[in-house]
Amino acid sequence: xxxxxxxxxxxxxxxxxxxxxxxxxxxxxxxxxxxxxxxxxxxxxxxxxxxxxxxxxxxxxxxxxxxxxxxxxxxxxxxxxxxxxxxxxxxxxxxxxxxxxxxxxxxxxxxxxxxxxxxxxxxxxxxxxxxxxxxxxxxxxxxxxxxxxxxxxxxxxxxxxxxxxxxxxxxxxxxxxxxxxxxxxxxxxxxxxxxxxxxxxxxxxxxxxxxxxxxxxxxxxxxxxxxxxxxxxxxxxxxxxxxxxxxxxxxxxxxxxxxxxxxxxxxxxxxxxxxxxxxxxxxxxxxxxxxxxxxxxxxxxxxxxxxxxxxxxxxxxxxxxxxxxxxxxxxxxxxxxxxxxxxxxxxxxxxxxxxxxxxxxxxxxxxxxxxxxxxxxxxxxxxxxxxxxxxxxxxxxxxxxxxxxxxxxxxxxxxxxxxxxxxxxxxxxxxxxxxxxxxxxxxxxxxxxxxxxxxxxxxxxxxxxxxxxxxxxxxxxxxxxxxxxxxxxxxxxxxxxxxxxxxxxxxxxxxxxxxxxxxxxxxxxxxxxxxxxxxxxxxxxxxxxxxxxxxxxxxxxxxxxxxxxxxxxxxxxxxxxxxxxxxxxxxxxxxxxxx
Length: 595
Description:
By secondary structure, the chain is α/β, with parallel strands linked by helices. The chain has helices spanning 3-20, 29-66, 69-76, 79-117, 121-128, 135-175, 192-212, 215-238, 240-245, 249-287, 291-301, 307-324, 326-329, 331-356, 415-422, 455-460, 470-479, 496-499, 502-516, 532-545, and strands spanning 178-182, 185-189, 367-371, 376-384, 390-399, 404-409, 429-436, 441-444, 520-524, 550-554, 566-571, 578-579.
């Protein structure tokens, strides 16, 4: 892995740890600290019982070696208490650690989910960070993979450190020093068993590190391919009708197969690298139980160690060595964690970028504010793409309460982007947009959103607690041409997103307007799926029933002009800015210059 990749991994881990550490700083910090304290206490209890088991082994095998039946039974009487203590601390430790992991993940998921959804960041992220694949997968899956193992790692490292220190003391006191002659020189090696355990662990850890170092990048690439492959299949499902109508099956299948071939190749690269790591781990597993016995055998034959001492030293050596090679045993999980941490950190950085307006050029922010005279004020507004390219420049306009304004222009001139800026969805640019203080705004896109739930909830979305008289609801549905759905208002288990046609979705949107009566309505091709008569009926309802609402709409049909007071035409030319406009009844002029 290149040095820059190491730096990126370090930054990713730092970003994740800063964000995730908020669990111990928020309102529920007392619970986090309580669970952490229980995990630590039960971990110490487990280590204490393990030390007791190690001592018990020595007493048992010493009694066995001496053939002292009375001593053997006396030692055996302690076994039930040891077993119960071990079972208690193990169960308590497992419960407390898993509870901490679940609650930590829940806190971090809620924090990221709230950050992503609030203030339309999910929309702005999709526009300004298109290279960021599947943020929902990062929140749902990578957060789990980045938090659950982290608790295991912290617990494992602390357990390993205390275990290594505790059992190294046993090796020092029980095994003592090794004495031997080399070239006529008498050599004394103090604490030789402890030193041998440390040296062996270091050799194995260094070997695993260099063999497995490329695994982090490969796991990250694999996770990216997994997310992209799922996103491709989701896109196929969401656009199933359009694809089926144009017979795009073979093309989509080929695209999915190519995406899966990339994923498969990245999986196989991980499998090959893990095979090398497992080869080393298997060799280590076969060797390290035998090594302490070989090292202790000379002292046993010389009478310096009893049989129980040999068993105790061998167990202590294994405990020290096992603790010190914690990194080896967890290297693959560490690689997977680092990859997930990197993906979560990228999402966090992208969300920070959206908040700071860093996805475009510096100073690329449209100021949203409130007006105190009931009118909409657009002042010196320039709209840019996230890369900083300006396509609407220095626009100024005032829209009075109840005024109906039509935005027109050729394709690609920025009409839809302008209405998104007015709705507060597009932050890239400069200038200001001031909306009446306390006003309610509704945006009606070409394909209105239909949430899950009963049709009644769909009609009142997003104001689910609205109270409307049944007769008023029935009248609104009939006037919008969906009276035949009244009997299905509370029908359960219907996927309305897939059931409603394009025209029905747009009628639903107008019914929402009639029921919720917002102060400002921003529409983008809101009648494109309706026939002429239906469009006339919807616009008549809008003009008559919502006369007090200000309307800003984008549409291509000429016949829709009669329902507006003013028309703004955006003209796009390759050689700089130009303006063209046409009067409607009661119209007056405002200009947009486009680049």
